Amino acid sequence: MKISIRKTVEIKDLEQWFHVAPPEGGSNQWKVGRSALEMARFALSEEFPCVIDNVIAECGLKESVFNCEPEALTSFEKDMGKGGPRHHDLLMVGNDTLIGIEAKVSEPFDKIIKDKRKEATENMNQRLNSCLDYLYENRPDNSEELYYQLLSATIGSIIEAQRRNMKNVISLFIVFTGNINAEKDYEKHIKENDDAFKEFCGTFKLDETGGKIPSISRAPGINCWIKKIKINIGDYSYK
């Protein structure tokens, strides 16, 4: 598999990555053991193409070339409420398959819908309702307990695939584990994230490993998978 990573220029090392595609939080997020830096390290490693190839194979797909963009932005549809675009940690574009990656160590998937509504403006409530209605023909009973970023990451990947006339999309969540300088309540945060993804999968009648979600009326002809993988940071070398 051939993978190229480019923003304004082709990215070949960590220094260049941070220079042309820093995370939203800048140097505060660019730390060993945090998702922004670990995602960059992993994407630049020799092991990354193999892992992506395995993910694609699990979905029954085949791709040999990906052009990737870190910190890629996808604006939501106008009727989904005003708000910021979806920030993909890494957007991978193949021939007929698009992968939107959200990386985590122990950072949360934002907040649950119910909690976001507590201080939400009318516009934000429109965004929240639109996200639920986009993914579900009939909202699940636990819809208010779902974490917003799991929905927005999946929707952002689907919308990006639509705009590029691609028919296969994978919303991929990568969790980095291992020798990490863990913060207080690290294990608790990891479990909360695992439970959040499991609950999200359950709304599509999938197990905690994810899989193909039902077809979406607003994205006819597009096949979408949600997947989560765990990567030990000691298992790869980077440039």
What's the count of strands? Answer: 7
Number of domains: 1
* Helix run count: 7
Strand percentage lies at: 15-25%
Topology of this structure?
Blueprint: E1 2-5, H1 14-20, H2 35-43, H3 48-58, E2 65-74, E3 86-93, E4 97-104, H4 113-117, H5 122-135, H6 148-163, E5 168-177, H7 186-202, E6 210-212, E7 223-232
Parallel strand pairs: 1-2, 4-5, 5-7
Antiparallel strand pairs: 2-3, 3-4, 6-7
Helix pairs in contact: 5-6
What can you tell me about this protein's structure?
This protein has one domain (2-235). The protein is built from 7 helices and 7 strands; from the N terminus they run E-H-H-H-E-E-E-H-H-H-E-H-E-E. It has helices at residues 14-20, 35-43, 48-58, 113-117, 122-135, 148-163, 186-202; strands at residues 2-5, 65-74, 86-93, 97-104, 168-177, 210-212, 223-232. A hairpin with a 3-residue loop joins strand 3 (86-93) and strand 4.
Keywords, separated by commas or semicolons:
239 residues, alpha/beta, seven-stranded mixed beta sheet, 7 helices, 7 strands
Short synopsis of the structure:
With 239 residues, this protein is an alpha/beta fold.
